[in-house]
Amino acid sequence: MGGLLTAPLVVFDYFANAMTLLGWIINNAIWHVMVGTGIAAVPFITLVLSEWFKARQEGDEAGTKGILTVNRIETRLYAMILAYAFTCLPLLQVQLATADIDESRSLECGTRQFAAGGWSEGAFGATESSIGGQQARIPLWWAGVHAVSHGLTAAAIHAIPCSTDFESIRMELDLHSVEDPGLQQEVGEFQRQCFGPARNRLLQEGGTIESTRAMDVDWIGSNYFQATPGYYDSFYAGRPIAGFPYDADRDVSRPNTGPGLPGYPSCQEWWSAESVGLRARLHDEVGAGFWDGFRSVFTGSDAEDYVIRRLVSPRSGAASGNLDQAVVGFRGLDGGSSFWDATVTAGSAIGGALSILPFQAGMDMLKQALPMVQGILVMAIIICLPFVMVISSYSFKVAGMATFGLFAMWFLTFWWELARWINSNLVDLLYRSDAAKLSWLSAANNLYDRMVLQFVEGMMFLALPTLWVGVLSWAGMRVGSAVGSGLRQGSGDAQSAGKSGGQKAQATSSGGKL
After folding, report:
1. Which residue from 146, 387, 441, 475 has the fewest beta carbons nearer than 10 Å?
2. In 328-395, where does DSSP find H-type helix?
3. Three-class SS of residue 34?
């Protein structure tokens, strides 16, 4: 056993590692049964008998049928022996290694980035070659197919441009929330006692509010309300706030305060004071690791305000009528200025908002399930190989079909990585300025764009593989429909389960009411 040749092969994740290894172990067991029972020799016996029968049917003329029969048997026999030796005999011991993923680089680029020359330490060491004490072995041809397919897939993934993964920033930002109940209450008090009165005063003054200012004054940390006299400097907290000491000039006539006790800060102080102000405390609710990554992308002084805005303001642009779109689509080509178009757009936004949670939950489950379904289908193909080759009488054509099938299945990883990259970078492709990107991340505007894009982005994980297997049929490879059908059937239940969970979560969060 020590002199046995090995095939050092690479897979992209631990699940594929286990499924591939299991597939070859079962493949080996089936092949040994076929060899032991003589089934593997049946195609050779069938070849001789079929050529003898054909020669008998041709008659005795020309006197050369014996030579022709021998030539035909010899030619086909050589081809069968080659196919038998390269695609059926398990000569190489499988040594599977999982590609080492550069996590930080992957987060930065939006696609999996493989560490140069590194293998991950699996449950059985750096490489795995057995399950339950059973060794896995692989024929020469399929070892080459595995190596070439994974090499081409990795090269294609590496060719995808590396750019900032805005979608991961948004998703990580969505994971943050105000956990402190006391701080949640204080934010609500600030909104009622400071933001509400300031916004009412602004609206009572009348006049036109330009678009950039309108977006700024639509949240509690508005720079305009802080910097403009008559707004946050003119309103005060409705109760003593911890961290703001008593000020006799300001608090002498107010209740429940006095020397040594908390005082009543102005809204400007309440929001912006260092360490104890609402902004500083909300800033601390976000992890330091997120801030480090965020500052490496956005260096502007006001960039952090967008993160805090997202933290405290679930409102979005559609709520205030801001439905300007970067994605035009095929509706409203007349400009969308009519009342009917505006009504339809608002209705679409509401419908999209109601359905986006179930859809996102379903697509999240689908995206998690797709690589697992891929690994199981690859395992099934590997297990079927002995039957396919014996039944086809060791046909090179059938081996080619199986080769295309395995390559098509493994190359799906590239299409999913491409879909993930598009999903991560559409915001950068559509919104070129940092201000627009930050507004998108904070849900300050363009909610309609975001909902439309999320539906499109989710479907790319199915649309691109479907196109891939369809293109394979152009080359005459009928494996495409089988691959596509297997993926749809294998992942459909996961998507349905996630969608159902999203609907229940949405119903729970809304109390069963619209």
Report:
1. 475
2. 339-391
3. helix
